[in-house]
Amino acid sequence: MASADKPINTDVPEKDVFALHFLQSLSNLRRQNAFNSPDDTTNNRVKKIKKAAYVSMARAAGGTNRLWSRALLRRAAKENNKVVIFSRRKKRVTWLRRSNRRDPVDAERLRNLLPGGGAMETSKLMEETAHYIKCLSMQVKVMQCLVDGLSAK
Amino acid sequence: MDLSGRFGVRSGGGLLFREETALESLHLGGGDEFRQMVPPENGGGFTALLELPPTQAVELLHSSSSSSSQATSLHTLGVLAFPSNSVLMERAARFSVIATENQQTGNVSGETPTTTSSVPSNEHIKTEPAETETSDQAAVEKQNNRCGKRKDFDKKAKGSSKKNKSSEENEKLPYVHVRARRGQATDSHSLAERARREKINARMKLLQELVPGCDKIQGTALVLDEIINHVQSLQRQVEMLSMRLASVNPRIDFNLDTILSSENGSLMDGNFNGAAMQLAWPHQVMETEQSYHHRQLQQPPPQQWPFDGLNQPVWGREEDQDHGNDHNSLMVGSASLHPNQVKMEL
């Protein structure tokens, strides 16, 4: 029988953590020569920054302990031909869709939105979404602060 | 057809023939199984039946174990009308698949009696095998535990009309008040399914609190839409901000750069420490920095890099030296750093 798990943990680290990781990745970007040279198109830069933002968010939010962050990191690492190091996986990957009978709460769009959402059960999906939303809003706040600080000069 | 057989069986009660419509009697047949409580309430002709002694009721129930097939007849007869017996309807709605089969929303858990809800969509009744009497016992306790949660099903009814075919089977024991519904193949599956649905609903509630403006919305589909919109808007915001950052970035020379580079090695290790660091980060960022310091015996100035950088109202200013002198104070009290972050307002 399915048992109800009582506490749904969606704690998110403080803003400092996110800021830390983001600035770190930004500095990494700056150190790339290609980034600062004028022949790097704006679009590329935007993309890189965006990617850096997501990756840093994933790291700040939970590293490989969260499904969505894990999927995000893996996706990013694949593009860079790197390997994601898994540390301390709490549970083994669920044998999903088999047990996930598509009930009327069909969260297909949500699955598409959330990184790694295609491989989760619906209840797990929602939990991850909650965490993802929190982390996203935190990341947005950090970036907003950064932009304000930079542009206020 | 089964009906005749059932009528014969129930002739002991002698009540069915009093019913006005065959429909009603049919419903009665369906309802019988669910009615453990024998309420002496008023109402239509059903009440008489209800007043049967429990044993007889049980017998009826047992005899009607083949009721699954009768469901088809119920279905063909269409909507049953029980205008007079609201209490009965309530109970029937509560107990019977009938309510669930309909696509009506509020009827599943059946607090709201609705006459039209009495028609069971028999596909489901058909699918279920003869009641598993043995498993009922086990189901009873569980059901009794869940009686209080009946209200949840009001919400779920709409979304889960297809699947929800109730979980628990109706037990045949008299006087056991159970929220039973015609359900899935076996009890364990149905129970698991119900538990799962409850899980999902709990999470949905959590999400609703998270997303602003979701509390007022009724219905899971709309709430989901709202959640998706919120996530999309957040993602778009990230993209917008990254665009702005990209445009702003080059004209500022990052002093952070030098600071960060020296600190990078230590911090990179920290990232991959995984949970340990994650636990440390939220509480005492300074603390971990100090631990880094101890580990690496680095010079203090690099250690304060994040706060330095954040501390600077203007990125380009070369004020490291000034802050470098402050590092002692920083290490002493992490709390003191935060008041300094006026500009960044983190």
TrEMBL record, chain A:
Q: Which species expresses this protein natively?
A: Raphanus sativus (Radish)
Q: What is its main location?
A: nucleus
InterPro entries from the entry? bHLH_AtIBH1-like (IPR044549), IBH1-like (IPR044660), IBH1_N (IPR059002)
GO biological process, alphabetically ordered: regulation of DNA-templated transcription
List each copy of the IBH1-like N-terminal domain by range: 18-79
User: Localized where?
Assistant: Nucleus
Keyword entries, A-Z? Nucleus, Transcription, Transcription regulation
GO CC, sorted alphabetically, is: nucleus
Give the matching Pfam families.
Answer: IBH1_N
Record protein name field: Transcription factor IBH1
Automatic annotation (TrEMBL), chain B:
| Pfam families, alphabetized | HLH (PF00010)
Q: Which GO terms describe its molecular function?
A: DNA-binding transcription factor activity; protein dimerization activity
The UniProt record lists the keyword Metal-binding: no
Renumbered to this chain, the Basic and acidic residues biased-composition regions fall at 165-174, 316-326
What would be the name of the gene that encodes this protein?
A: LOC108853366
By what name is this protein known?
Transcription factor bHLH60
Q: Which SUPFAM superfamilies match?
A: HLH, helix-loop-helix DNA-binding domain (SSF47459)
Organism of provenance: Raphanus sativus (Radish)
GO CC terms for this protein?
nucleus
SMART domains, per database record:
HLH (SM00353)
Q: Give the matching InterPro entries.
A: bHLH_dom, bHLH_ZIP_TF, HLH_DNA-bd_sf
Organism taxonomic ancestry = Eukaryota, Viridiplantae, Streptophyta, Embryophyta, Tracheophyta
Region Disordered, as annotated, extends over 103-174, 309-346
* Sorted UniProt keywords: Nucleus, Transcription, Transcription regulation
Output the Gene3D superfamilies linked to this UniProt entry: Helix-loop-helix DNA-binding domain
Q: Where in the cell is it found?
A: Nucleus
Subcellular location, principal:
nucleus
Give start and end of each BHLH domain. 184-234
Task: Give start-end positions of Polar residues composition bias.
Answer: 103-121
